[in-house]
Amino acid sequence: MNEDTKQFIADHLKEDVHQLSLKTNRNKLIDIDLAIRQIAGRQKIKNKIPRFYENDAILYPVQLSIEQSSSESTARYKSTLCKGETLIDLTGGFGIDCCFMSVNFKKAIYIEKQQELCEITRHNFQVLNKHNIEIRHSDTEKIISSLEEADWIFIDPARRNKTGNKVVLLSDCEPDVSQLSEILLRTANNVMIKLSPMLDISAALVQLAKTSEVHVISVDNECKEVLFIMSRNQSLNPTVKTINITKDVKYQTFNFEINEEKNADAEFCSKIENYLYEPNASILKSGAFKLVSTKYKLKKLHRHTHLYTSNILIRDFPGRIFELIKVWENTKNELKRVEKANISTRNYPLNAENLRKKLKIKPGGDIYLFACTIYNDKKVILECSKAII
Question: Cα dist. 154→185, 353, 359 in Å?
Answer without folding.
Answer: 11, 39, 48
